[in-house]
Write a structure and sequence with these properties.
about 40% helix; eight-stranded mixed beta sheet; Rossmann fold; globular; 8 strands
């Protein structure tokens, strides 16, 4: 079933406990399509397009808190949440701001801070450096490419993320088709979302999360290095880490069976 609530496009399917999916920067809910069939046997899936992405309308203002608030408004109560990349940071923000809504979190290729940071004299608590990220210029280059040719850049990115999959070609073909069915985000939306990636630093807050959290991370992730997942595993109060060997930034595409197994094992639906 497809519907739009509060200008947020949401697809709902399957049967079982509620499981909400939040995609990453520049993407839309179609990116989860390759694993939907398997997971809908165990869960009621709620797959959203973030504001300004896919079929969802843009919002003002755009920052991490406003995105979290918008998603929280349409969330089913007591849901488990899967967040990928930027979606993982939004999932963390929801769990921090609206703890009663969230049961458990699954963070995929996520990080408390995407960008490397040098010594900060102003911020005494977090003056230490952060080197489990990447250089900010990487995001700038990516944004420029997307602005020039959105579909081509997304296809190239997804092709890279599918490497290692037994059915990589079929998966990329499916995703290309699904992405072409949805509106292209504006350059303004892409750049504003990019600012969130550049500015967000949740290191000081994640110690307050009491929810059980599963981290799923590829050991070859070049956008959110696996060191970030190891750091979170050490600092989150209730955390389990699953590193998938040979996977990059999107293990749910390149290693679909392993990803689904990890999810089902952690969330323990009634099978």
């Amino acid at each position: 079933m497809n519907m739009t609530a509060n200008n947020i496009h949401i697809e709902t399917m399957g049967a079982g406990p509620n499981l909400l999916f939040i995609h990453g920067w520049g993407m839309n809910g179609a990116v989860w399509q390759p694993i939907v069939k398997r997971l809908s046997k165990f869960f009621t899936l709620h797959i959203i397009d973030l504001p300004g992405m896919g079929m969802s309308r843009p919002i003002e203002p755009v920052h991490l808190h406003s995105l979290a608030e918008k998603v929280a408004e349409i969330m089913p109560a007591n849901a488990d949440v899967v967040g990928w990349s930027l979606g993982g940071q939004i999932a963390l923000r929801i769990a921090l701001d609206y703890p009663d809504l969230v049961r458990r979190l699954v963070l995929v290729g996520s990080t408390p801070c995407f960008v490397n940071k040098s010594f900060d004299k102003e911020n005494i608590e977090y003056k230490k450096t952060w080197d489990a990220g990447i250089e900010p210029e990487v995001f700038g280059n990516f944004a420029d490419n997307v602005n020039e040719d959105y579909h081509k850049t997304m296809t190239q990115f997804l092709t890279l993320q599918c490497m290692g999959a037994s059915d990589a070609r079929a998966t990329v073909k499916l995703l290309r088709q699904k992405f072409s069915e949805r509106p292209t985000p504006t350059a303004q939306t892409l750049y504003r979302m990019l600012d969130i990636l550049l500015e967000t630093d949740l290191r000081a807050e994640i110690q307050y999360l009491r929810k059980p959290i599963l981290l799923v991370h590829g050991d070859r992730d070049s956008l959110a290095p696996v060191q970030a997942a190891h750091w979170m595993a050490q600092h989150l109060p209730v955390c389990y880490l699953r590193v998938i060997a040979g996977a990059s930034h999107a293990p749910f595409l390149s290693h679909q069976a392993q990803f689904v197994d990890a999810l089902v094992q952690f969330l323990e639906p009634q099978i």
